[in-house]
Specification:
mainly alpha, 107 residues, 2 helices
Length: 107
């Protein structure tokens, strides 16, 4: 019994879209700004914390983008392989239909 691999380009596209949306939401850390003239001691701590958050969200965005590229790459490879196998099967079935002078099993 042969197993089948179901490739659903629509589902893959939807997942990639969701990953992109998550990446976009991470960009919120880029809108935080701090006053340069303040003397509040907590401001430096907050700057440091948000700088780390910004770095971490940037890294997360890069990883999410990598995942989207991987999904797209796999879908391209699956589609190409699927088309190649279909072509080989079509050629094989067409070729076997004409063996021995029979066409579609009729003599």
């Amino acid at each position: 019994m042969m197993s089948t691999i179901e490739v659903n380009p629509v589902a893959a596209h939807n997942q990639a879209t969701k990953i992109c949306q998550a990446s976009d939401k991470l960009a919120i850390s880029n809108i935080v700004t701090f006053s340069r003239g303040t003397t509040i001691s907590g401001n430096e701590c907050a700057k440091s914390t948000f700088q780390k958050l910004k770095q971490n969200t940037y890294l997360a965005q890069q990883l999410l983008n990598r995942d989207v590229e991987s999904i797209q790459s796999v879908m391209t490879a699956f589609t190409r392989t699927d088309e190649h196998i279909k072509k080989l099967l079509d050629e094989s079935l067409l070729g076997s239909s004409f063996k021995g002078g029979a066409v579609n099993g009729f003599k």
